[in-house]
Specification:
By secondary structure, the protein is mostly helical. The chain has 2 domains: 70 residues; 67 residues, Winged helix-like DNA-binding domain superfamily/Winged helix DNA-binding domain (Arc Repressor Mutant, subunit A), CATH 1.10.10. The chain is built from 5 helices and 3 strands; from the N terminus they run H-H-E-H-H-E-E-H. The chain has a 3-stranded antiparallel sheet with strand order 1-3-2. Strand 2 and strand 3 form a beta hairpin. Helix 3 crosses helix 4.
Length: 186
């Protein structure tokens, strides 16, 4: 059984196959460029918006500086300048008063513990509050509070960060605010 296939049909099939391959190749070459152009456009738009925001921020800062400078210029313009006289320069020294901190200096470790226990008797405090009050480093304060916690002298509230510390009965006994329970003899 021989089937006669026309040469035109064979050439048509081969031509359509080759045209299909060429179309797929062209599509694969063009598609990434189309996608990258849209991505490039998005990136460029984002950069433009970023720089626009920077320019707006700088303009606002410049305006605020100009507004701050204008009252000084107005004051200088309104005050007539007197004739210049030679005078000795006046030295003005500004004294900055620092807020006094409630600090205890040169205390031994034992007295620091007593002092901290007395502090947290008044109200629960964080380790930061204790650090500022006793004037020690953060590490020193945290080690001391850990030691007090492990000895059972203070109670640590772990629900909040930073931890707050409250004094326990054992701590009150240590500082002498509460008498130690004694066994009554009969």
């Amino acid at each position: 059984m021989l089937v006669d296939i026309d040469v035109g049909t064979i050439l048509g099939v081969i031509a359509s196959f080759v045209i299909g391959i060429v179309c797929i190749a062209i599509y694969n070459k063009v598609k990434p460029r189309l996608g990258s152009q849209s991505n490039d456009l998005k990136i460029l738009v984002e950069r433009l918006q970023y720089y626009e925001n920077l320019l707006i921020d700088m303009k606002i800062k410049l305006d605020s500086l100009e507004l701050a400078k204008e009252p000084e210029e107005l004051v200088q313009a309104q005050i007539p300048r007197p004739k210049e006289q030679k005078a000795e320069p006046i030295i003005v020294t500004e004294v900055k008063e620092e807020k006094p901190k409630e600090r205890t200096h040169n205390m031994s470790f034992g007295s620091a513990i007593e002092y901290v226990l007395r502090l947290i008797t008044e109200k629960p405090m964080t380790s930061r509050d204790i650090q500022v009050t006793i004037g020690r480093t953060r590490e020193h304060t945290s080690r001391m509070m850990k030691k007090l916690f492990e000895e059972g002298l203070v109670e640590r509230d772990m629900r909040t960060k930073p931890f707050t510390y409250k004094i326990t009965e054992k701590g009150l006994i240590r500082i002498g605010s509460l008498k130690a329970p004694t066994v009554e003899s009969q």
